[in-house]
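Researcher: Re-running this chain for the archive, since the previous output was lost when a drive failed. Same request as before.
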Amino acid sequence: MTTIFQPHTINEAFDILNRPLLVQITAGGPPPNPDPQAVLMDVSRLAAMSGLHYAGGELFVGVNTTYSTLLHSHLLWPAAACLLDACRLREANLPGGTLLHDFTTVAFDNPLLLALIALHAQAQIAIRPSGQQPQILTLPLQKALLHPPNPPYLLLGFRFIAGSMGTTSALIQHQPMGPLQPDALAAATWLTIDPQTNRIAAMRVAFANGRSWPILCEDAFKALIGQPANANAVEAAVRLSQDGCPQPRHRTSTPPFSLTLSPHLIRETLDRAIARSHHSPN
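Model: Regenerated structure tokens:
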């Protein structure tokens, strides 16, 4: 029979993690891939890892939060609606799942990762230096997930700017299309549209190929700032994406090469985000 620990505080969680045991962390149920050699630590009672909170213009999403909870929250609409799109995709594959299990290991094809990158999210991590009280660090997403602190540590959740009036977002994921598929199989966009003039005030797009860390493209769209958010802007964004979102083939390679992106993917993602700026979630 598997041993299950249920800490009530961050300190209790670190006491468990510091034991000479193989500990697998879960929230509210068995992990998707249980390790028969591990004991389980159910962190669903830890408030620091739970819920969706708004304060000071920022949203915090705890990793204990289920896809269903996020899908029923209007706090994410429409500025962080790309996260809702990602949750719908994950809920279809893993009903009842929580964010925690998506970030136990990093999967570059996970739409939740792409959504968080498009939102400029940062990660909050708890550590407990020897002989001290737990400390909470706010780290860039890539550093937190690929180069976290030395264990033990706890990923608490993600924090991002909620967005001003007129901010909207969307995420689209396409199925693999064979050996000649474009580099990007999913895209997430975030943009702010001035509600008075219907002109673009800010814009960024993130692309995922499933094989490496998703690419965030922002500078390429500076030419669209101040332009009307209409079909012409969408077509211009397609061209700018193709020409202005380079990625080095390797870290030391020069010159960079341009991504081969699906124009339909970019159009569909931007169309969805722009439409959301004018409609309620229902």
